[in-house]
Amino acid sequence: LVNRSIEAVYGEYGVGLPEDGSVELDDEWSGYRDLFAPFTIKDRVNDPLPQGGGWTTRRSADDIARRHIHHVMTGDTFKLVLGGHSAAAGHGAGFNQSHVIEAGHVLEPVFAHLGVEFRAYNFAQGGMGTAQQALAGMDLRGKETDWIMWDSSMTEKPAFFNNFFMRQALIAGNRAPVIMADGIQDAQHFHDVAGASVAGAGQGWTPMTTSDEQAKTVPWAAQYLVCGREMGGTCKAHEYTAGCWVDRKDYDGYEPAVPQGAIVGGQAAWHPGNRVHKRKGRMTALVVLRTLQYALDRWEEFGREDGFPIKEERWHVTDYYESVREKAKDVPGCWGGWKIGQKRMLHEVEGGHEGEADDGGPGRDLLEDDELGLGGDWPARLCNIPMQGRTLWGPRHNPMETSLLSIMRQNRYGDV
Asked: Distance (Å, rounded) from C-alpha 200 to C-alpha 204?
């Protein structure tokens, strides 16, 4: 099942080899197949990738295998979560066309056949970034998150933003999620210091479009994704295929009560189209599927060694989660001295304390200029406190329980 799902993604982009032998690739396309989405299990996070593509480390692969086996053994849930900015939210495309949801389209039925309820969540917020979300720990992102992604580099460039996002993911939830390392500058520290599992999706290879006529020979999913120079801006002109209304023959003459826009709102030069989202989501899905494939192989090996059922220490996760949560506090790089109440966006704050709290683990120290937050710094101890929060802003996990209204006292008439 896992192998067929991987092969289906390859087939979508023209480099698949079905089990029935109905497709053969010549030498050129066989080479493209090797480049499409290679996957490497490395010894260290920063080891080079000779072919690019997806990756994880050997220790991470083993720890992710433990998680996968646990979920299958217990019928648990598996939750893939994304935080980010407007491009990650899928502005300009349909919400269900954003890359994390596209990954979910591939993964949900696979996990369902294994008795695991899979859900993909897109908690990206246009114009906001992720810092305010991370200040609520994992309440707004889901405490049962298994795999977490950050896609906010367009609006949150300093590394301490994604550091804070990921460390709260590790310490504030009930699980220590796998960190998707794409764009995470401190991924090595989370891996080496905290013992967190990390993986990356990478880029891979996509068929090139060289003319409108040649595009007809390119698999639909790959058309106009990568264009030669001779195509000019043609690729961008074909980036969006999403619309607000699709005319249907069985509804001939029907007009929706609400006038429909010609395009989905939010289409802009800095927002990727739905084809780009699909390709990125497929790369994410392939990494998860490869780790699941590795887990099933390991399970078979454990069975040969232990018999079935395999030993409980092979798949119990509590000690692993607790170990990562405790050691995550020692990961450096969290705090840059964020000022309170000075500017609207945290990346606009004035400097002055960068590096003050980086020695020996940033959250072990405290920036005490006005602890009440009346014009001073956010206290650096926030790095190591499992935060909680409520809001009326969305999207958010479990919206009724995480609503600001849920913690407001009623008046004597029972009103909030």
From this structure: 12
